[in-house]
Design brief:
The chain is α/β, with parallel strands linked by helices and 443 residues long. It contains 16 helices and 15 strands. Helix 10 links the parallel strand 9 and strand 10. The radius of gyration is 21 Å and the shape is globular.
Length: 443
């Protein structure tokens, strides 16, 4: 009952704020519906990501008066990372006043699947940065879905690439044994096809070991890993299962530096509760932690110094989840700029115009440096056929107090990943009777 009350309170507060914001401003406004999760077992991720996103929008409003004079306004809806509530939020956020929502980004694979077939009908782009179906990177089959920066398949490939670097070359992976400890839900299984193909290509073996959600009991799994004696463990877990994994690994004698996690296991909230057991653990990131980025420093100066930050704990500014949220905000704002350049400045854009902008978005190193985000995210270049735009991942290691970068941006095996994307997307198109777009006629 307390959880339900918290959810209803959060929804009511967000609705009141959004309505007030849209009702009182005189200048042109751009409405965005945010399906956040600030309560429940994955609240650390939700508060960080959506807090960083909101703070970036506050920065744009404060520093620039919005995008070309169009003020950014938003309304949150609490999902609790629950699929059914996520769909309810999608419907609730679909329109505010006379404006349609122009982007839906639930930061949840389950909710992404729940609205997957709704977004084309409603003409609302679905932003699935680092989550969801990896084959949606094929924009010819999935024109309304954008798994930007890196999909789970690209990430899995980058993890293997990183392990190859550590061993002194990809050929050195031959004969290695790798345990894959995964949380037993859809995202945890998504990397399997790429891991299987890479194992065949490079001659290593994998053993997949499931952890039941939420993952706070793993003794049997780590005893199995100890018996297996793998060279590495790839960790595909989320929330409370992450510190549980690290602490249990330490109790069974498996070294943290031999554990490499995906980006949902590489936040401060994953390692701090594990204490010394986390020291040496490595995890992937498409938005590294830290406050050395100019955009993060601007948020501190122009938002938090004025007491207007979204995070209850300002010390979380610059954390992994927070910086991931800023990355979401950057993509949203830069797509708005591009859409306005094509369809008219000084007025809000539509969902269809936002889709065009996302599909034509290019953020090179020069542009990233101009907005203070160089190093915070990899360069992007999307197209009609490529809705991922990068695929690159870098790795950071926990030194006991902070994350330290231990790699540059690592490229996935593009040929292998893209072939799998096209193969899976083609099968989906055949199953659903979809005729893929001819991108030569759309660009």
């Amino acid at each position: 009952m307390k959880l339900k009350k918290a959810w209803l309170t959060a929804v009511a507060a967000a609705t009141v704020w959004g309505a007030a914001g849209l009702g009182t401003a005189q200048a042109a406004e751009q409405y965005l519906g945010l399906p956040s999760y600030r309560v429940g077992p994955y609240a650390a991720g939700g508060t960080g990501v959506f807090g960083g996103w909101i703070d970036y929008m506050k920065l744009i409003n404060e520093r620039e008066g919005g995008v070309n004079g169009v003020k950014l306004v938003w309304q949150e809806c609490e999902t609790e990372y629950n699929n059914a509530r996520g769909v309810e939020c999608y419907e609730r956020l679909k329109k505010q006043g006379d404006q349609q929502n122009v982007l839906f980004a639930p930061v949840s694979t389950g909710i992404t699947f729940g609205v997957f077939e709704r977004v084309p009908q409603d003409k609302i782009p679905l932003l699935s940065i680092g989550i969801g179906r990896s084959d949606t990177a094929d924009g010819r089959v999935f024109p309304w879905v954008f798994p930007m920066i890196a999909t789970y398949w690209s990430q899995a490939s980058a993890i293997v690439g990183y392990l190859g670097q550590r061993e002194g070359g990809m050929d050195k992976l031959k004969g290695k044994k790798i345990a894959v400890l995964y949380l037993d839900f859809a995202p945890g299984k998504e990397p399997f096809p790429v891991l299987d193909r890479l194992a065949q290509k490079w001659g290593f073996t994998t053993e997949k070991i499931a952890v039941a959600m939420p993952g706070n009991e793993q003794q049997a799994q780590w005893l199995q890993i100890r018996q297996m004696r793998p060279d590495y463990v790839i960790l595909l877990t989320y929330g409370v299962s992450n510190p549980t994994a690290l602490k249990t690994a330490a109790r069974t004698g498996f070294p943290a530096e031999r554990i490499v996690g995906w980006w949902w296991s590489g936040a401060e909230e994953d390692v701090v509760p594990a204490g010394d057991a986390a020291k040496g653990f490595v995890a992937g990131a498409f938005n590294p932690a830290g406050t050395d980025f100019a955009v993060i420093q601007d948020i501190q100066k122009l938002v938090y110094a004025k007491g207007q930050g979204d995070m209850q704990d300002p010390k979380r500014v610059g954390s992994t989840y927070y910086n991931r949220g800023v990355g979401h905000g950057i993509i949203y704002v830069e797509a708005l700029r591009l859409a306005q350049e094509k369809f008219g400045k000084g007025k809000p854009v539509t969902g269809e115009q936002m889709r065009w902008a996302l599909e034509n978005l290019k953020l090179d190193e020069k542009r990233l440096e101009a907005i203070g985000a160089k190093g915070l995210m990899p360069a992007l270049a999307l197209s009609c056929a490529d809705h991922e735009g990068s695929g690159r991942v870098r790795f950071q290691q926990w030194d006991g107090t902070k994350w330290v970068s231990v790699s540059d941006w690592i490229e996935p095996d593009r040929e292998l990943v893209r072939s799998l994307v096209e193969e899976s997307a083609a099968a989906y198109a055949k199953e659903k009777g979809i005729t893929p777009r001819d991108c030569s006629k759309e660009q």
